[in-house]
Every structure is written in C-alpha cells, then in structure tokens.
Amino acid sequence: MANIHDNPNRDAWVKKIAAANTLANGVKLLTDFRAKHLSPFKTDFSLELDGQWIELKIEEKVALLKHKEFNDTQFLNNSATGENAQKVADAAVAKINATTDMYEAERIHINFRLANKPPILPVNVFLDADRQLGTKLMELRNTDYYALPLEELRKVRGVKVITLQ
Amino acid sequence: MAISTATKAATDALAVNRAPVSVGAQEVHRWLQSFTWDFDKNRTKYSTKYKMANDTKEQFKLIAKEYARMESVKDERQFGSLQDVLTRVDAANRVHPKWNESMKVISNFLEVGEYNAIAATGMLWDSATAPEQKNGYLGQVMDEIRHTNQCGYINYYFAKQGQDAAGHNDARRTRAIGPLWKGMKRVFSDGFISGDAVECSINLQLVGEACFTNPLIVAVTEWASANGDEMTPTVFLSIETDELRHMANGYQTVVSIANDEAASKYLNTDLNNAFWTQQKYFTPVLGMMFEYGSHFKVEPWVKTWNRWVYEDWGGIWIGRLGKYGVESPASLRDAKKDAYWAHHDLFLLAYALWPTGFFRLTLPTAEEAEWYEANYPGWYDMYGKVYEEWRARGCEDPSSGFLPLQWFAENNHPIYIDRVSQVPFCPSYSKGASTLRVLEYNGKKHSFSDQWGERMWLSEPERYECQNIFEQYEGRELSEVIAEGHGLRSDGKTLISQPHTNKDGKLWTLDDIKKIGCVFADPLKAL
Ligand SMILES: [Fe+2]
Ligand SMILES: [Fe+2]
Question: Under an 8 A CB cutoff, do A142 and B270 touch?
C-alpha cells in the first residue's frame, strides 16, 4: 500500500528545503513558495494536492534557522526578514484602514498573510494584526452585500462563466 | 516576584467585594456580577464586525459548582441505564441493522460538531465583554465537552455491545475518501469556528442549535426508538437538555449586539448565509439518514422539516428576534423547495458512491418503495425504477462486477460537487432545486449548485478552497484509493462499507472493486 505522505513532488521539495542553510535563504524559499502555490490569487495549480504539506516543511525549517541565527531580543521583536515586527504589522493595518475598496483590502490582507504568517513574524504580533485586518475586510465585504446582481458580481470578481443552467 | 495585571486586578476586586460566606448559588452568582472587567486593555483575540454590549444578561445564572452537580446527575442516569439495564437486555443487538449503520454516521459526525462547538463557545467567551454573558458561554463550553464524550460513547457502546463494529469504531480514519465528510466539516467545523466571531455564534447557536438540533437531536430519538434503538434516545435526550442554554446563548448574542449600528448593517446577511450553510447540508443529509437509514418510518422528512425548520424556527423563533431587527432569511423559501426532494437525490448518489463510505447502505425494499411513493408522489418513476435496475444488475453481489456509479457514466449523468457546501449533486438526474453553475477563476473551474452559495464564493473565494474527491483522486483507481484511505476492515481486505445489510449476503473485498477498474475522473475537466 502506498504511503500517502510520500510522493515525488514532496521528495523533490524535501531536498530543496534541506539545501536552505541560512535564514535569508529560508525566508525567500517560504515567501516565494506561498506566493506561487498557496495564494488565493495563484494561477499555478501544480501543487494543489501537496502544497500545504510542503509549506509546513519549509516553515519548520525557517523556524529552526530563526532560532539558530536570532538572539532572544531579535526572536521576540523582529520579523525573520530582520525588520521590526511591530512596524511591519502597523504598516499593513494603516494601509487597510486607508482604503474603502473591498478588493484592495482583500489584497492587503491576503498578501500580509502570505508574506508574514509565522514563523516570519512572531505569533503575538502576527495574530493581533491579522485580527485587525480581518475585521476591516469583513466590514467592507459585508456592507451592501447584496448590492450587485450575480451577473455583475461575476464580472467584478473576474470569473469566466463556463456553464449556467 | 511581580504579579500580572490580571492577578492584581482580581486581588483588588476581592478586597472590595468580599466573597460570600454561604455557598448559595444565587448569592455566589450575585457576587460574580459585582466584578467588572476593564476591556479597553483586555481586547478579544478574534475578528468581529460587531460590538457586544458590556451589560448583557444571561438567563440561566448558573455557577460552575451548581452546574457540575446537575450534570453529574444526568451522567449517572445515562451511563447507569446504558451499562446496567440496556446491556442486560442486550439492547444493542435489538437495533434494526439498517439503523445500526445510520448511527455510525450520525453519532460520529455529531461528535465533530460538538468538538467544534467547544472551540466556538470558547471563542465567544473571549469575544464577549459582559461577565454574565461570558458565564453563559462558559457553561456551554463545559456542555460541549460533555457532548463530545457522549457522542463518542454511543459509537463505543455500539461497537462493543452490538452488531458490525466496523465504522462505529475509528470512523475518522476514512475522512479523506467519503464525500459526506467534507460537507459535514463545512457545517460542523468551518461554520462554527471560522470568520467573524458573531457570525460563528449565528451559525452555531442561532441556526445550528435553535433550528437543526430539533430535527437532529430530538427527531433522531423518535426514529431510533422506532427502529429498536434505546441507546440513542438515552444519550441524545440527555444532550438536548443542555441545548436550551445554547439557544438562550444565541439569543443573548443577538441581544448584546442589537444596539450596535453594525447589527443593522450586517446581521441579516450573516444570518442568511449561516442558514443557507447549515441547511444546504442538513436538509438532505438528515432526511436521507432518517428515511433511507431506517426500516420503520416515523413520518416523512418534509413534515418534520416544515414543523421544526420552517414554522418553529423560521416563524416563531426568528419572529421573537424581530424586535432586534432580525428578519427571516431570504433563502428560507429556496430551502423549503429542497426539503421535498433533496434527500432523495442525495441517497441516489450516496448509494452509487457506497465504496467510499464507512457504513453499509441498503436499497429500499418493495414495502418501503410503497411508502415513498405514497408520501412523495413521483418517487418511483425517478428513483424507484433506478434502484430496481441496479438490483437486477446485481449491485449488492460482489461477483456481479457492477457498481451503480457505472450507471451514471453509462447514462451520461455526471456528478458534480458544490464548492461551497461540498455536497454532491447530479444536475441532469435530480428533482431537487439544484442548478449547475460552473465558473473559471484564474484558470481553475469551480462548480456550484445554487445562487446563495455562488454569491458566498464570489464574495469570499479564499474561504472555500477545499478540493473535492474528484479533484483529489483524479486518474486513480478506486480500490487503491480505498486502501490508502483506510477503508478496510481488520482483515485488511473486506471493505468497511457495503451495499447491503443482508446477514447472508456476501461482503465486497478490495479485489472485487479492483476487478471493475473504476477510475476517478473530474467532471469539470470535460467542460
Ligand atoms: Fe452540544
Ligand atoms: Fe450545543
């Protein structure tokens, strides 16, 4: 019986992950991977089945590299990119608070997650920013929720209609 | 050592409000009310569009100690009956075999709902600011822990004392293959714990508990007893005694936000989406479990549905909340249309997909076919004659080489899965209200079966990314997938699921499936 946790896709990534030996390498590998394979805006569906497992393995590696390269103060206060964590979070919150467009807010929130989900930012900083971004996004999305008929909503979302019965 | 701000606040409060000398419950409760918490600095961890008022009351006014005494009495009665009298009269072997299978699904699935309800009410405890309201949610956290254990215990009891343990034990290991699991996770898991905290309360308490626990936990006990099952009423009615508190909590959630202007902007949208989310799965699945998973019928599902969902909930309960601006959901009318045929449509697919389950299904007998036709005129021409054809082709017999899934392929009736609810549907062979809608987004196709779900996806597509089994296993052979997904009994070759409950009938093995050469295909690729 096949082991459901092993397949050539995953094996290839396990090797790439092993090769990342500095925090900077690890961070780049992780954020590039998320943007290409896990973004809700992605156009590459080649890792639909294995993407989350691979992401988890890269995150494990980044967490270890962060532990190795950071001292305690850096570990609690910095993003894995080296920036001040609270500043990164505050910038995203300020940006979303400045918009009234739900589609722009959606991009701000989603891109914040792709770039900063732990272990990139420390959990305490990330979650509180995520709560504020989520609150704002939900407020925009849920205002006049039924304003557009479906035909127009499809256009705004940018979908192609294949079948309508 | 420095004490935390919270510890200091508690110590200061105790200095002002001396603890009562007696342990009288109401006195202790009054004393608890005298605590006020400063929520400017103590904010919730969860996102919400609403502000819960700081002075919300709660009706039960139970303190933890009083609660524990009450629940321990309920537990004594329940476990006492199960372990003593019901075991002595061999109750688990008196259950009709068809109903034995239904309880594999009902109790294992409800356990997931109870487990997520623990998390949901913990989240609400964190989100509320009024001490009494928090206390109400806390009571519910404890209830839901109890219910998780109770549901697990039902399957444990059936597995240990009763007939055909496979599927009562360890059902969850099959979760990757069965198409019913993912929809169940939508209602019982995502719906309760993801998104806005108040929206979660609406899903769990205002819809899940106030609307669907009546058919789910009360009606199920009638069907159980009619089919010889005394264990399920013993446990589920004990669960239901706690649900009043949960419905009251849902009511108080609405009261707590009623004066916030956000409520008029968002509340009815959240309610409509929550109702549609819950009903889209429960309406067909409960109807299917009751009618097709029983031998002795209580009443047609459409009647139960109209009484509990449409009149009792949609009319009376929601009517009572009218003074807080709550309106009956716009999707209720579409749901009513589905309550007549949707469960018949679903059973046709569930039976066809039987090898992917963790329970045994049974085709309607001639006597049952008469009951269906009498209560749902037109049933025979649509469903009855298909079951006759399948039976004639030997769908129950492992040597026939026939899986009903082949019938759908032969007759060009593709089966799709709704991205939002994860409920399978067959648009070219159904009598329910589902309509096929396929949209392509960034190069990937998504199918939907109704306007409400389509709008939910268009508004928040990243919430509904779950792959369905056709995408997940595309190109792979069925027996391989079953083996990989742990769908086998302890002998390592017989399937847990079977297409009959006939004691003398032969059981299907992995080899019987393999011989057929059934390969998963994604119907969206053909469009
Ligand atoms: Fe419960
Ligand atoms: Fe409950």
Answer: yes
Residue of chain A nearest B441, judged by CA positions: A159
pLDDT at B379: 98
Residue count (chain B):
527
What count of residues does chain A have?
Answer: 165
* Residue B344 to residue B321: CA distance in whole angstroms: 33
Q: Strand locations in B109-189, DSSP E?
A: none
Per-residue pLDDT reduced to its tens digit, A100-111: 999 999 999 999
Best of B43, B44, B269 to disrupt the A interface (most A CBs within 10 Å) is B269
Pairing of strands A160-164, B416-417: unpaired
- Is the CB of residue A15 less than 8 Å away from at least one CB of chain B? no
- List, as ranges, residues with CB under 5 A of the ion ligand 1: B 114, 144, 147
Cβ contact, residue pair A145, B461, below 8 Å = no
Q: For residue B447, give Cα distances in angstroms to B179, B424, B467, B523.
A: 15, 10, 11, 10
Measure the CA–CA gap between B228 and B388, rounded to whole angstroms.
Answer: 28
- Whether cis (ω within 30° of 0) applies to the bond prior to A119 is yes
B395 among known catalytic residues: no
SS3 readout for B187-220: HHHHHHHCCCHHHHHHHHHHHHHHHHHHHHHHHH
Neighbours of B89 (CB within 10 A): 11
Q: Do A138 and B196 touch (CB under 8 A)?
A: yes
Residue with tokens 């806005």: B196
pLDDT tens profile A77-107: 999 999 999 999 999 999 999 999 999 999 9
For the record, the structure tokens of B172 come out as: 């969850």
pTM beyond 0.80: yes
